[in-house]
## 1
Amino acid sequence: MSEIRGNKVTFNPNKLVLTAGATSANETLMFCLANPGDAFLLPTPYYPGFDRDLKWRTGAEIVPIQCTSSNGFRITQSALEESYKLAKTRNLRVKGVLVTNPSNPLGTALTRNELELLVSFVAEKGIHLISDEIYSGTVFNSPKFVSVMEVLIENNYMYTEVWDRVHIVYSLSKDLGLPGFRIGAIYTNDEVIVSAATKMSSFGLISSQTQYLLSAMLADKKFTKKYISENQKRLKKRHAMLVKGLESTGISCLESNAGLFCWVDMRHLLKTNTFEAEIELWKKIVYEVKLNISPGSSCHCTEPGWFRACFANMSEDTLNLAIQRIKIFVDSSDVIGTNIDQSNQTNQNTSTSLKKKLFAKWGFRLSFNDRER
Ligand SMILES: Cc1ncc(COP(=O)(O)O)c(C=O)c1O
């Protein structure tokens, strides 16, 4: 953790609680910090899994901090205040703000200014700040990753009340590409939370065999350093490939410097400026172009027409093929308004249509998770 943060912050192992991935870390923090009906404020768009991880079993609520494309989806003071007000009008007690740095789905790292704004906001309101830094090792372009811990130290928050109210979530699922190993962590300066989270971690332990294997692997400093820098180099190359490829089809992406995905602007391909049109376009891309991307509405984006496209989980050849398919799709005369069922009618038999319906349901559930709750 220190190495990824340029050794600007040191982490005390006594303040670290191991969990079965970031999923478990985020839920555990909710159990520790919020009572049912209490709220956390989250900048939109956000990782769809948060609806499940933060709300389902804890009874906590999420109130959006509305971020928009007008400033590259950056967090502003007014958006924070609006969100806080909205929670109050819904009679919710605000317990904190949760950010993902770098962001899933935007692929952007928070700026120092945004972090300072967040820290002073939680200081003023007397609430918590959770920073999910699961993508911290994926920053492949400048500006460099800045951890909230660094900002706390630089702004003299050490050993103040705020120091105890800022918590980091981490996991090896993304930086080391090990989601199946289920290795996550909470890092907090608050001893009471360390103690409560340690007790709760019994419900999501990392097996001792996994810990043993990992500690041997991570102890090889030369390997981990090389792995992270090589990974960043490859992500940078793959990101550039996708951005350039999409640009050649007239599609642009939000400028980003981290993560495993791009935030793609397809607003001009919508039939109307609505979420219904977004879903219509998404279905075409899934069923006709046969590419699995996520619609922005699944991430609670407030503007229809944005999509998240992953570029890291495939070979270069596959990515080239995906870009090729998008190109053909965009170039085709009838991108907008094609009825999927009609266009496939000719050689469609009953069994493929049934398969499609089931796939549609499954895809929708997978992408939207707990959208309605
Ligand atoms: C922001 C964020 N937090 C948490 C998780 C869950 O990670 P894990 O596999 O470590 O549970 C993800 C996974 O995509 C994520 O994007």
Note: The chain has two domains: 2-220, 228-332.
## 2
Amino acid sequence: MYTQAMDLINKNDNDHADAPDPVREQAFEARIAAGEFIEAKDWMPGHYRKTLIRQISQHAHSEIVGMLPESNWISRAPTLKRKAILLAKVQDEGGHGLYLYAAAETLDISRDQMIEALHNGRAKYSSIFNYPTLTWADMGVIGWLVDGAAIMNQVPICRCSYAPYARAMIRICREESFHQRQGYEALLTMMQGGTAAQKAMVQDAVNRWWWPSLMMFGPPDSESPNSAQSMRWGIKRVSNDDLRQKFVDATVPQAEILGITLPDPLLHWNAQRAHYDFGPIQWDEFWRVVNGNGPCNHERLKMRVDAWESGAWVRDAALAYAKQKTPQTTAQT
Ligand SMILES: [Fe+2]
Ligand SMILES: [Fe+2]
């Protein structure tokens, strides 16, 4: 088994997790306030558990669905080296999904339940993966901007109060940093030694991915009602708007080195704030995509459902094999 089944909450004790218990709740809040980490077997309020299940499972879904736009280009990578890099990156994303599903399973939800929620549309995944990948330059821009934004989002989660999630994120962030670097390096190669057509292709990809990348940090703090509670519980460490600003500040100098123009006429350095100011984000587009009406929502979900259905025989065979093996293993121990 590749789950963290040993850490699962004891099913008999599970009822208490969701029942109000002011004494334990107070002790829990005190542990959080003292900066302690919560392990899977520790008592936790039902709302904390549910918030984590929602966040971790949606994060896992994002990793798995996120494999689709890039896998579209594996067979068309321009060189063997680029193909090997892209293949490794897409496999990493599959691994991230698995660590995260395993972390969510420690909160007493099954993999099947999570997958079902994705397939019937109850669970979301990052809206960025509902955009199409039109050219090879999109591979570089996804690494640079999308993985770059993911790192900004995810580094603070390495200090999340829920320890199994924090541990998964430490490993994931190391790999995300490779993803960002390989994307930036691919773009630099095209911008420094490429033809005019290749440079135009990079600029076009940046034009299409810039704003959706800024949306990856989620709605403005003023419209993010769950954020305050998540911050108080140490699930979220930095606010959406602060992360977005950090990302813009880090990315603008990188764009200058690349020699591309970010598609925002209002983007400029504000010496007073010591940050870059940027133009308004089209939140109606964000909500349209989140609510299922982006360019590729239907296609992405269909691919996941088809993969799940066509892989049923593998799961059945693995379960039948495990059942056969179980008595033998127990006898040996
Ligand atoms: Fe990832
Ligand atoms: Fe990544």
Note: The chain is about 65% helix and 0% strand.
